[in-house]
Amino acid sequence: MEDKLDTIRAFAAKAHNGQKRRYSPDPYIIHPESVMNICAAYSTDACIWYAALLHDVLEDTPVTLEKLQSFLESTLEPADAERTIGLVVELTDVFTKANFPQWNRQKRRLKEAERLGRASAAAQTIKYADILDNCKGIAQYDPDFGPVFLRECEMILDHMKKGMPALYQNARDVVKREKTTLKKDKDYPVV
């Protein structure tokens, strides 16, 4: 399994090549690797690990669903490839500005939260790890956007309750801690 994980990690790194992690000079692949490591601490499900590494590929890179599917079918057993693809698709934003330019960000994020509330427990588990990784340090790195982002994360978590309970609580705690830090550091009306 380690060989498959390395192959998928290399595919994700190549897909995200040239992208940088927000608030850091680090290559973007650091984020999917972190999400995968968080998931691995809570789950032994290899498909969750694979999808965690790939969770932003369709959303943030030129890789198409067909290309990702072909890659996974050549790398994994058919059932694992199908399940991993399904998880990545569940985690890929649908209500984007490009798809719904007539809607404001708040409406798009609400629709996304509602959609994620219908996602599988495995996809929700990965999303918890994604939220956890994205929220850590946001109060320090982006105090202007932090309140908006943290409210969106809370809204998403309010809709997603099927994933791993301990990871869900960890994500909730990080959001709460970052909101408290924002409130202490700035006199923001954090709700």
Describe the structure.
The chain is mainly α and 191 residues long. The protein has 2 domains: 1-92, Hypothetical protein af1432; 93-191. The protein has 11 helices and no strands. The protein has helices at residues 2-15, 30-42, 46-54, 57-60, 65-75, 78-91, 105-117, 121-135, 138-141, 146-159, 165-185. α1 (2-15) packs parallel to α3 (46-54), α5 packs antiparallel against α6 and α8 packs parallel to α11 (165-185). The longest helix has 21 residues, at 165-185. The chain is globular and about 50 Å long. The mean pLDDT is 94.
Concise summary:
With 191 residues, the protein is an all-alpha fold. The protein is built from 11 helices and no strands.
* Beta strands, count: 0
Major β-sheet profile: none
Low-confidence sequence ranges: none
- Gross morphology is globular
**Computed structural class:** mainly alpha
**What Rg is obtained from the alpha carbons, in whole angstroms?**
16 Å
* Average pLDDT level: 94
Report the span from N to C terminus.
44 Å
Which percent band covers the strand fraction?
under 5%
Number of helical segments?
Answer: 11
H and E order: HHHHHHHHHHH
Total domains:
2
